[in-house]
Amino acid sequence: MSTVNRAAGGTADYLDQRTGIGLAVKNFARKIFPDHWSFLLGEIALYSFVILIITGFFLTMFFVPSMGLITYEGPLASMDGVEMSEAFASTLVLSFEVTGGLLMRQIHHWAALLFMASIVTHMMRVFFTGAFRKPREINWLVGFVLMILGLAAGFTGYSLPDDVLSGNGLRITDGVVKSIPVVGSYMSYFVFGGEFPGEHIIPRLFTLHILVIPGLILALVGLHLFLVVLHKHTHFPGPGRTERNVVGFPLFPVYVAKAGGFFFVVFSVLALMGGTMTINPVWNYGPYDPSPVSAGAQPDWYMLFLEGALRLMPGAGTEWVVAGYTLSLNVLVPAVIVPGLLFTVLALYPFVEAWASGDKREHHVLDRPRNAPTRTASGVAILTAFGVLLAAGTNDLIATHFGVSINDITRVLRVLLFVAPVVAFITTKRLCLGLQRKDRELVLHGHETGRIVRFADGEYIEVHRPLDEYERWLRVHHQPVRPLELLPAEDERGVRRKGYRRDAFRARVSRFFFEDRVEPVTPTELAAAQSHGAHDALSAPEHGDSTLVEAVANIKPEHGGMPTGEVTRGPATPRH
């Protein structure tokens, strides 16, 4: 045994005797994880956060979180002699004087965008597959809070350079805070340390960005991974996959090797983007000045929906004075009330669906989105509304690039914000139900082969290829959720039942979620569908196989006919 192996073994034995870590590592190394590409979305979020920590540590060593004014003297000629804050000046130093500083800035910014994109996409996967169901409701809330913290981390980091663009974003934030009735002005004074912009907001944002928010994210990531291990991983439906097992690969050595390689893939892609794609060139905007507000200014994509909501809200007649307080509904509604309601619904959705279904079982096998049409349609409707708000946040760019009136664009988007989600909901739900009906047809009759056979009595039939075991399992192995039954309003003695109104409301909600559905094929239906008498022999041979003709020739159909010929769709085949 080499010296290195002896040293490693001795260290491991030392730690195991004093901590008992060997048993934990042994059990954890045997943990099974499913092998499906969609589970990598959460890993991308984790790896992006690690890259954010690494690059953020580098940036912290050079960034000066101060709003004190200095005169810039540096290699950037366009900014030479311009008065600016120390925060903005240190950002220029990072970009043009520190070796690798600009690369680190851009990797950090791209990683932040990817971090939020992967969190949102990961939550979409969890939502559409029903992975939030019991026992994972708490983990859904953890993921939801992680998304909110990601928004906060992005906003605080985006505002640190103290340029015109980030300053305008802070000015909007000040207006949103002040729109809150009664306490808004006091909250703004507290946040900014006086009247906007004050002298304390950048140091405060810096503390939140590098200390408070990352610490909370780290704690919640740890809790999230602990709950994943505790509840075991979900997996997609398929033969052999049940609520009591997990089909996949062990953590060590397979998953560790794959995850380690995937981390370097994510890192290399972000490094390539940071080195070749310019993002947030603050020197083009200049230091923050409250007087100019440039056109074509948008925040990062994950905050763009708030910008779009503010742009779509009408201004005329939306400011009221009540008891001496100005109520700015044109800011309060789109920036506080609507996002608050949407985020509340998103956080509580697992509990609402469980309440509507009355389902108290544990679920470890994921749903196919088509088998939960109302949930899928609701998700698509929300994403459609989100897309409309994203477009509204760029209405000025759309107007300038396509030569269209910005007022016309705004009016169209106002209508689409209410119409498009409804259309998306109805269309998606009908598509899901149609796909369920298609699944029933495939299970009962098999795949179309394009081969039509004619019998002696003149009957034409198409030869179908039966589904294999995997395909059939995928389409029938799910339990439909039916609406809750409403008990009569009065009991057998004619006394009005207590809680009837609550139960009636719950039944209405349950019907909304589960009334429209397509029942999966039962074994009895499958047996009846596969019993075709004389036609059974036609389904075995492959298209174009000469044995088909022999099989057909030996059939004595129940209706007395003999197959005399065939009609084919597609490539021509000999006629018998």
UniProtKB/TrEMBL annotation:
<feature type="transmembrane region" description="Helical">
    <location>
        <begin position="251"/>
        <end position="273"/>
    </location>
</feature>
<feature type="transmembrane region" description="Helical">
    <location>
        <begin position="206"/>
        <end position="230"/>
    </location>
</feature>
<keyword id="KW-0679">Respiratory chain</keyword>
<dbReference type="Pfam" id="PF13631">
    <property type="entry name" value="Cytochrom_B_N_2"/>
</dbReference>
<feature type="transmembrane region" description="Helical">
    <location>
        <begin position="331"/>
        <end position="352"/>
    </location>
</feature>
<dbReference type="GO" id="GO:0022904">
    <property type="term" value="P:respiratory electron transport chain"/>
</dbReference>
<dbReference type="GO" id="GO:0008121">
    <property type="term" value="F:quinol-cytochrome-c reductase activity"/>
</dbReference>
<feature type="domain" description="Cytochrome b/b6 C-terminal region profile">
    <location>
        <begin position="238"/>
        <end position="434"/>
    </location>
</feature>
<protein>
    <recommendedName>
        <fullName>Cytochrome bc1 complex cytochrome b subunit</fullName>
        <ecNumber>7.1.1.8</ecNumber>
    </recommendedName>
</protein>
<dbReference type="InterPro" id="IPR005798">
    <property type="entry name" value="Cyt_b/b6_C"/>
</dbReference>
<feature type="transmembrane region" description="Helical">
    <location>
        <begin position="110"/>
        <end position="128"/>
    </location>
</feature>
<keyword id="KW-1278">Translocase</keyword>
<feature type="transmembrane region" description="Helical">
    <location>
        <begin position="412"/>
        <end position="432"/>
    </location>
</feature>
<keyword id="KW-0813">Transport</keyword>
<feature type="transmembrane region" description="Helical">
    <location>
        <begin position="44"/>
        <end position="64"/>
    </location>
</feature>
<dbReference type="InterPro" id="IPR016174">
    <property type="entry name" value="Di-haem_cyt_TM"/>
</dbReference>
<keyword id="KW-0812">Transmembrane</keyword>
<feature type="region of interest" description="Disordered">
    <location>
        <begin position="555"/>
        <end position="576"/>
    </location>
</feature>
<keyword id="KW-0249">Electron transport</keyword>
<keyword id="KW-0472">Membrane</keyword>
<keyword id="KW-0408">Iron</keyword>
<keyword id="KW-1003">Cell membrane</keyword>
<feature type="transmembrane region" description="Helical">
    <location>
        <begin position="140"/>
        <end position="160"/>
    </location>
</feature>
<feature type="domain" description="Cytochrome b/b6 N-terminal region profile">
    <location>
        <begin position="11"/>
        <end position="237"/>
    </location>
</feature>
<feature type="transmembrane region" description="Helical">
    <location>
        <begin position="372"/>
        <end position="392"/>
    </location>
</feature>
<keyword id="KW-0479">Metal-binding</keyword>
<keyword id="KW-1133">Transmembrane helix</keyword>
<dbReference type="GO" id="GO:0046872">
    <property type="term" value="F:metal ion binding"/>
</dbReference>
<dbReference type="GO" id="GO:0005886">
    <property type="term" value="C:plasma membrane"/>
</dbReference>
<dbReference type="InterPro" id="IPR005797">
    <property type="entry name" value="Cyt_b/b6_N"/>
</dbReference>
<keyword id="KW-0349">Heme</keyword>
<dbReference type="GO" id="GO:0016491">
    <property type="term" value="F:oxidoreductase activity"/>
</dbReference>
<dbReference type="InterPro" id="IPR027387">
    <property type="entry name" value="Cytb/b6-like_sf"/>
</dbReference>
